[in-house]
Structures are given as C-alpha cells and as structure tokens.
Amino acid sequence: MNTKVQNQDELPSFRLDGRLAVITGASDGIGRAFALAYARSGAEVVLVSRTREKLQEVKSTVETAGGRAHIIGADVSKLEDIRSIEREVSRLIQSEAKDRSLVLVNCAGFGFTKPALETTEEDWDRLLDVHAKGTFFCCQRLGRLMIERGYGKIINLSSTWSTSTDMGKSVYGAAKAGVSYLTAALSTEWAPLGVRVNAIAPTSTLTENTSRSFRENEARAQSLLSRIKLGRFAQPADLVGAAIFLASPASDFVTGHTLHVDGGWQAGG
Asked: Has 181 been annotated as catalytic?
C-alpha cells in the first residue's frame, strides 16, 4: 500500500502532448469540434468517419493550424471496419520510437426521435449497431492496445436521454443508457490495467442536423429549451472542456463516470 503524499505544489496538466487521439464521427458536429480542440491541445489526431471528403476538410484545418492528423474511412457499425481502425492505429503507435498514450473518443452516432409504436426492427438495428455495438467493439479493439501499454483513456458519448424520458426517445434513450452502463462496466474491468473509461452526456446540441430539425419543429425545440436551466441549447464548443479534461493527465483519477454537460437539465429534476 502506497501512503506517500504527493507534492501538492504540482499542478495537473490539461495538455495532450504525446497523445494519439482516435475520434470516431470526426467529420462534423461534436466529433469535429473534439478533433480540432485535441489537435490545438497538442494531440496527434486520427479522424474516423464514413465520409472521407468531410474528413479531408477537418484534416486540412488541423494541419493548417500546425497539428498532425490522419484519416480512416470506416463504418463503426461493421466489425471488420473496426478491426481496420485497430490495425491502422497499431501501426501509427509503432511507427515512432517515442511512446505515445492512446485516447479513444466514441462520437459516431445520429439522433433518433420516433414513437415506440412506429419503430421498426430496421430502426432498432440501425441505431443499436452504431451507438451500442460500435461503441463496445471500438472500446474492445482499441482497449487491447491500451492494456498492452498499461495506460489509456476512453471517452464515450452518452446523452441526457440516458436518464430522461420524452416522446419518441425510447430507443435512443435505451441506447445511450447502455453507453453509460458500458462505460461503468468497462471501467471496473480495466481500471486495474491502467485504462480509464468515462462518458460525456450532453443535452440537445446545435449541429447542422439538429438545427435543421429545430427549424422544422419549433414547438418541440421550445419544449426542449424549457428544460435547460441556462436557457440555451449547447454548442459543440461547450463540450470541449469536458473532452479535454477526460483525455488529459488531469483526470487520471477519474474513471467510470458519466459527466453531464447539460446546462442544468438535471438540476432540480
């Protein structure tokens, strides 16, 4: 048992220098915001998405700012694609003599609102294949690489819908509740092996897709807005601080936690 008190004068680092950060769903929205923020914080980023054209734009933005980025075209609902991510990330880790810490951020996903009685098997499979299956197997395959090195950070994207209910959110909420449970379960298994597993649960966040949806249904947008105590929807930039913290050495004693970044959605019920 180590009972030595560490030097309290040393401030924890929020920098990501020397880290290789793999971000799925990096082509737009929250994933894009995380990728750019990680690169600015010193990480080398691996951009993963089905849309290579959009990834190229993100890569160019990173490199223009002086960062380093790589592209992997992959669909995380397909296990063979996830294996290809693992192979490429393994190659990148071994390509330089210096040891690099690995970070995985599972951002790939899509919104889904549909009444339970109208939900089809195809809807269920499509949603769970990305949010549940994709998240689990990305964690599994890249978690192996972290365990081999005795250290790593995994950040999953959950949602306020993991703990809240609303019309049309039965399947999406179930998937995101599963992500939060998976986060806690993997943290239990992998904490002794040096891997920290946490999640971020944002409230409704303004991306290109959600903005269009809110314009088409202003009544629903107002209903959602009324539940956010700060009085506005989240922007992707609002989630960046949590993402950097959980990827950095500053959070080395945090694992198994779902951090709600929700503008006070949960406060007071």
From this structure: no
